Amino acid sequence: MTKLASADNLPFVLPSGVRPKFGIQGSKLTTYNIGGALSLFVEIEEETALAEFLSLLSKSRLPYRVIGAGSNILIPDSGVTDWVIKLGRALRFWLQSE
User: How does strand 21-25 pair with strand 37-44?
Assistant: First the structure.
């Protein structure tokens, strides 16, 4: 995978409200406070933005992982190169109420 340093290098145009971050520490996202860098990270708050972004990733054949609040996951010390999509608070509530 090519290392991306900015949204300008993405193979698609991001949906409104989707702001990626690059190289953040995974340990800051889990209750266990362990884990290496996440190469490609985004937190999404709205259902439509999530649907559009997942569609773009699928069409581009880019791997991704979806996480919630981070209480039941372990991120390897070696990090993750797939897209990591964190569901924002509003989205987590919406998914639970369905």
Answer: antiparallel
